[in-house]
Structures are given as C-alpha cells and as structure tokens.
Amino acid sequence: MTVPVIPIEHVLALAAALFVMGLVGVLVRRNVIFLLMSLEIMMNACGLAFIAAGAKWGQPDGQIMFMLILALAAAEVAVALGLVLQLERRFDSLDIDTAGELSG
Amino acid sequence: MALALFYVAAAVALASTVLVITRRNAAHALIYLVVSLLSIAVIFFLLGAPFAAALEIVIYAGAIVVLFLFVVMMLNLGRRSAERERLWLRPGMWIGPAILVGVLLLEMLYVIVLDAPGTTRGTVVGPKEVGTALFGPYLLAVELAAMLLLAALIGAYHLGRRYLGDRREDLP
User: Fold this and answer.
1) What would the mean pLDDT of B40-57 be, rounded to a whole number?
2) So what's the ipTM on this one?
3) Residue A18 and residue B122: Cβ atoms within 8 Å?
4) Considering the domain boundaries, does residue A97 fall inside one?
5) Is the pLDDT of residue B164 over 60?
6) CB neighbour class for B1 (10 Å; exposed up to 12, middle 13-18, buried from 19)
C-alpha cells in the first residue's frame, strides 16, 4: 500500500500553526474549559509533529510517542476537569482569574 | 492529486481550530474541536499512520471530548439548563461544522471510490510494527504510562468528590 509523499516541512508548518493557535487560546481565553481545549490542541499539534517525523523515516517510534502523548492528554484532562468542578463549586465561576488568591 | 487531500485536510484543521478558540460557547467549541481532530486523523492516514489515526478518533474525538462534554453539561445543571441547551444547539449552529465535516467526507469518498492515485515512496507503518516496537524496546514507557493513568484516576476521583475540603458535619 502506498501513500502520497507529503513534504515534511508542510506538515511541520501545520503542526506549528496549530500549536500557536493553542498557545494563543491559552493566553487569550479566561474560561477554564477553553483553556483546557487549547491545551488539547497544543498536545495534538505535538502529536502531529511526531507522526510526521515517524512517517519521514518510516519508523514506528513516532506513533509510539503519539500514543504516549495520548495517554498524557487523557490523564491531564481527567485531573484538570476535576479541578474545573472544584473551581465551579468554590468560586461559582469558570473564570481562571477568580482563583488568583495565591497571588496575594 | 493525492497531495491535494493533505492540503484540504490541513485547511479544514486550521479553520476549525480557529473557530474552536474564538467561540463563546463551550458546546459549539467542542463540536469544532471534533472537526479539527477528525481532519488531523485524515492527515495521519495520509502520512501512513493508520493506527494513530484510529486512536486519534477513538480516544481524542471519542473519549476526551465526551469527558469535556460531560463536564460542560454537568456545570449547567440546575441553571435553567433546558432552554440554555436549546439556545446552544439551535439549527443554524450546525451549518459550519457540517460544511467542514462534509469536506472531509468528500475526501474519504474520493479515496474510496477513485482509489486515490498515490505516488510511491511513502510507506505505511502499520499497527503490527507499532505493536512490536511498543511492547519491545518501549515496554518501560508503557509501564510508566500505566502508572500515570493510575495516578490520574486517583487524582480525578479525589478532585471530583463533592465536598472536598468541607467539614464532615456540613454534609447534608
């Protein structure tokens, strides 16, 4: 089975663009749910870069790193959504800045 | 021509990701996030990583987005949730995601019907090679991932409890 040869630069550019979009989302949005979604976008972009590199050399290692990122993303989102529930219960808001008590 | 599939999927991914981070509404953003993940899965297929593409759909678009959706819906309970959901999911809202997903569907039909004339040299790394490497040299990483997931399970259980930090006698 053959697949088209895609220039790896273009795939990496796409991954970088997606990562920057996630970063902008983290910086701009203040709703915790959107923050977490932006984090998922960033991790997904990293996974895309790994898959592209693995495809470039025809090795399975890229896909394995992608799977580890997937496990990390699942673990992160489970814990973070628990934190979201606590934030909503304690501050009655989903704005991340309401939880800034530690800044004094 | 097969290369065009990649660029179309990339355009869909970029467009839907922009729409994710600019939506006001968490449910709308999640729908666009699913579109973004699906288009990235298409790119994985085109890069010769079918197993990763399947995992992307099953775990990201399946499990993680559903977890988000659970929390979004949970936080609305008791707050006039019915009419709010009706506002969220009004028919016009589906047009954007439907167009983007329709593009991906056209790509899939193109590949299936015309058996896309791929140029050579790109190789597919199938599930077998991935599995062999995963449970060979990367066995330690699998163990570490298992420990991470166990820790996340316990952490999520602890954080998700209703009255964390409150005194026992405050409980109803």
Assistant:
1) 88
2) 0.89
3) no
4) no
5) no
6) exposed
